[in-house]
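Re: that chain you flagged

S.,

Sorry for the slow reply, it's been a week of failed gels. I finally had a moment to sit down with the sequence you sent. For the record, here it is as I used it:
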Amino acid sequence: MKPETTAHVRILQQCWRSGKIAGEVSAAKYNWHFQWRFRRGQLIVEPSLGRALIQEPLGRFLERSDYQLEPGGDYTFTIRASF
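Prediction finished late last night. Pasting the structure tokens below so you have them in one place:
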């Protein structure tokens, strides 16, 4: 069985006009803030500590779910890795 980690996402802001979704994501003991500029396909994740662990899986989650995400919403997704 492969290791798994659950990531928790909270959407704080969403603006279709500017093409941006902002929020927080946490997994294991890590916490990050992110901005997803979906028109540009750009994902900014801060701080840099542990960013390499979350950036790709978070990007896939956002691409798959962006039209369903709402400000104030809490979401989860599973990462096939142990943090």
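What I noticed first: Residues 11 and 70 are 6 Å apart (CA to CA).

Talk soon,
D.
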